Amino acid sequence: MTLLCVGVAGAGNVLGGLVVTVRQRWDDHLLHYFVALSAGFMLAAVILKMIPESTRLTAFAPVLVLAGYLLIHLFEHTVAPHFHFGEETHPERVSHTTAMSALLGLAVHSLFDGISIGSGFLIDRTLGFLLFTAIVLHKAPEGFAIASIVLAAGGSRRRALVAAGAVGGASLLGGLAIFVVPAAAGAALGLSAGVTLYVAASDLVPEVNREEGTATALTVFAGVVLYWATESLLTTLGI
């Protein structure tokens, strides 16, 4: 079940890339709503579930959460300073270096997505399904992002789709890693909580704030409600 969920999450990257590559231009209003929904769900998941669970499992949880947050902050502002969780529309062609840095940055995020799902299932099945839901919501935007950046850098549609597949594959790699070393689940959850917090609060929410009007902003609250509804359903079903 763990690897199946990780695989489905990774397939979301390919789906997002496929949508970009099969159409010349894409109306991204729906994408923005998915980003906002994902932001709310991820914020609720990390604050209400991931951090409390990691604190229960290890005394070093606060340090690990902070380390995960700062790790991605450092990475995004050094190795991969240029990408967004939406379709990239550049009036000028971006450089191949920019495209590669974006691919590397999103791959690192995706790696921790797999680690998060894997560690969640190892600790508690409900937690695993909650993290899977939170992560799969932003997988298509990730696929959108990397595929459109590759196209903007002059790459072919095939290369754009391969890049989206590579980002998805990084999730599978993360899931396999935690599956091979299950003893690291507690520490991995704390580190992943920091990464998830950064992606939600520092990557996704700013994307939401770029949109005018209140509809997209209110969708963040809908994401929190969706988290509550999902957890309640899983509890009722005894999962």
What's the helix and strand layout?
Blueprint: H1 2-22, H2 29-57, H3 61-78, H4 96-123, H5 125-137, H6 139-152, H7 157-180, H8 185-209, H9 215-237
Helix pairs in contact: 1-4, 1-5, 1-6, 1-7, 2-5, 2-8, 2-9, 3-8, 4-5, 4-6, 4-7, 4-8, 5-9, 6-7
Overview features:
239 residues; mainly alpha
Report on the structure:
- The chain is mainly α and 239 residues long.
- It has nine helices and no strands.
- The chain is globular, with a radius of gyration of 17 Å.
- The two termini are 12 Å apart.
- The relative contact order is 0.24.
Give the termini distance in whole angstroms: 12 Å
Number of strands: 0
Roughly how many Å is the radius of gyration? 17 Å
Number of helices: 9
Main pleated sheet? none
Mean pLDDT: 84
Q: What is this entry, summarized?
A:
Residues 88-92 have low confidence and may be disordered.
